[in-house]
Hints:
Layout: E1 3-6, E2 9-12, E3 16-17, H1 25-37, E4 41-43, H2 52-61, E5 69-74, H3 81-95, E6 100-105, H4 114-126, E7 130-136, H5 140-147, E8 154-158, H6 167-176, E9 179-183, H7 192-201, H8 205-216, H9 229-236, H10 245-250
Amino acid sequence: MTRLRLGDTEVARIGLGTNRLSKTPEHVDFIRDAVTAGVELIDTAHTYAGGQSEDTIGAALGPNPDGCVVATKGGWNGARPEVLRAEIAESLRRLRTETIALYYLHRPDPETPLEESLGAIKEHRDAGQIRNVGISNVGVAEIERAREVVPIAAVQDRYSVSDRRHDDVVDYCAGEGIVFVPYFPLRGTGGGPLTEIAERRGATEAQVALAWLLKRTPAILPIPGSLSLEHVKENLAAPELALSDAEFGDLL
């Protein structure tokens, strides 16, 4: 399966992370070219590159990015309701839109009850400024608490072939129909069976690592970061590399 439903939109199963995106003409063109190449989910955050990531995406795509979901996050440096309200307003301005397609609580704030943080996000969802809500850097118990406040369309945690600390979250999301968005999906990959499979299949190691994630569960949507259109195109081709059960097992 090369596509999945993320909230209210169907998208390709390889997205693009933009934590290094800066406000330059080259990067504005890069975002436009990435969407033309087939990227249908762009992931950013209020804090990325000091706000330049959101600014660049807004400049590249404008208020209605045709065929592309732009997801952003807030609450990294504290998630009190008033902080989130201010960050959401700024993200709307930077992205040049009236509605954010997917908005994550970037991480729970130990000084603020999770329910209060998500309550502020729900306010904006109820007002039509956010369409779908996600939560990041969480475990299963926190996801369940979050779902008591607002429907959760996506969960974003660190996960890859070499980093499986959130296996339980992946399984929970798969069972509950929630999209799991692994960040750093290529971190720490390479060598051993992964290299052997890549050489045998005429693929890159990154493509094999992404193909493993896609086979792990149909609910996964990786967001490898890149500033290279060539690498973006390589990543977008990963769903064509269907691993066999034996190859998948070799990487377990």
